[in-house]
Design a protein that fits this description.
Distance between the termini: 16 Å
Number of domains: 1
Order of helices and strands: EEHHHHHHHHHHHHHHH
Largest sheet: 2 strands, antiparallel
Helix content: 55-70%
Strand content: under 5%
Oligomer: single chain
Number of helices: 15
Strand order of the largest sheet: 1-2
Number of strands: 2
Length: about 375
């Protein structure tokens, strides 16, 4: 799994709760970018970048879910054929839609060069963005041309590691993957600034993926918590939201930062490990939001960008209140994500699966 859509199925049923958490994570990211644009467009001084940072919690959730789904849906046997199948499925799901939006941004850049000049167009950077190669941009930040793609660079890194270790005996898989992820974070971080690849693989955010992998491993091994624990999961989600909303005040009063990685791992663990977790049913709209979360994630910057240009060009900031602008950002983003999911992502996924299926018979039946 990635931030991409599609129902999560296995022999044990549908994990509706994970789908809903994917949608929730995507909405958090949309709110983060909507608030950033609101602060910038309206020149609000009562908000700082630090106050908005806890909303990046959505990315932590995405990565924990990604690790969980990868191991949870993994085949019984690990070998070269299974590794190839795994990578081809991931490529079919992730690459076409991502490339579509990169291309759309490149076209938009040439149509609106003044409005998008801040992107700093460079053909080498664009090629690296298409190929999921991390690099330092003009500002010295590890960020691709299509900025939201930085998370997909990590997804591809996770996929490559996962597929590589599927080539070794399965009994060594978890320990080998764990070591491969932990060593850069704990022993190579000091030299990260000198090398973009080391900087990339040693980022602590990869620990979210590792958390998800181990949670999925426990589920696969049949480890289950008492049924009542799933209600504790709901309480943890509520607590994380409260802390998220009042993160600045809590930090000012106690010096405690929002523990987003801890909350992300704990939330996912508490909604999948209790007995009966696979029987939980969620509202259809929430499930749809989860299904369309990949499209929402990739398209929301376009939806927000169009609104910013319209409000700015027409000088409507005096007539559109900041809260209304932020609400419109959220509404248009969800609408754009839904349209993208139904009219672009799903057809693309069918076509890419069909193409790969012709090259690898029975691939998507496994």
């Amino acid at each position: 799994m990635t931030v991409s859509g599609g129902a999560i199925l296995s022999e044990r049923g549908t994990l509706d709760s994970i789908q809903v958490m994917r949608g929730f994570a995507a909405v958090l990211i949309v709110i983060y970018h909507a608030l950033k644009e609101t602060v910038s467009l309206y020149g609000l001084t009562n908000f700082s970048a630090g106050q908005l940072e806890p909303l990046i919690y959505g990315i932590d959730l995405f990565f924990v879910i990604s690790g969980f789904i990868m191991i949870y849906t993994s085949p019984a046997e690990f070998n070269a054929s299974a590794a190839k199948t795994f990578m081809l499925k991931r490529i079919a799901r992730i690459v076409p839609l991502y490339w579509f939006f990169i291309t759309l941004l490149v076209i938009a850049y040439f149509i609106l060069p003044q409005q998008l000049d801040y992107l700093g167009f460079n053909i080498n950077d664009v090629v690296k963005t298409y190929l999921f190669i991390p690099y330092y941009n003009g500002d010295g930040i590890l960020m691709p041309f299509y900025k939201v793609g930085w998370t997909l660079n990590y997804e591809m890194y996770f996929y490559a590691l996962f597929a590589f270790f599927m080539l070794i005996p399965k009994r060594f898989f978890m320990i080998a993957l764990t070591i491969a992820l932990l060593v850069p974070v704990f022993f190579m971080r000091g030299s990260a600034e000198q090398n973009e690849i080391i900087h990339f693989i040693s980022a602590p955010i990869v620990l979210n993926f590792l958390s998800g992998i181990w949670i999925g491993f426990m589920v696969k091994k049949g480890i289950a918590l008492p049924t009542i624990i799933k209600y504790l999961g709901v309480l943890v989600i509520a607590a994380s939201l409260i802390w998220l909303i009042f993160a600045a005040q809590i930090y000012a009063a106690t010096g405690l930062s929002f523990p987003q990685k801890t909350f992300a791992a704990l939330t996912i663990a508490l909604i999948v490990l209790p007995r009966g977790a696979f029987d939980m049913k969620m509202p259809k709209f929430a499930g749809f939001l989860g299904d369309s979360s990949y499209s929402l994630y990739l398209s929301h910057s376009f939806a927000i960008g169009v609104l910013v240009v319209c409000i700015g060009q027409l000088d409507l900031t005096a007539h559109v209140a900041p809260w209304l602008f932020c609400g419109l950002c959220l509404f248009l983003s969800i609408s754009a994500g839904s349209v993208s999911f139904l009219l672009i992502e799903k057809p693309m996924l069918r076509l890419s699966k069909s193409y790969i299926l012709r090259q690898n018979k029975n691939l998507f039946n496994r």
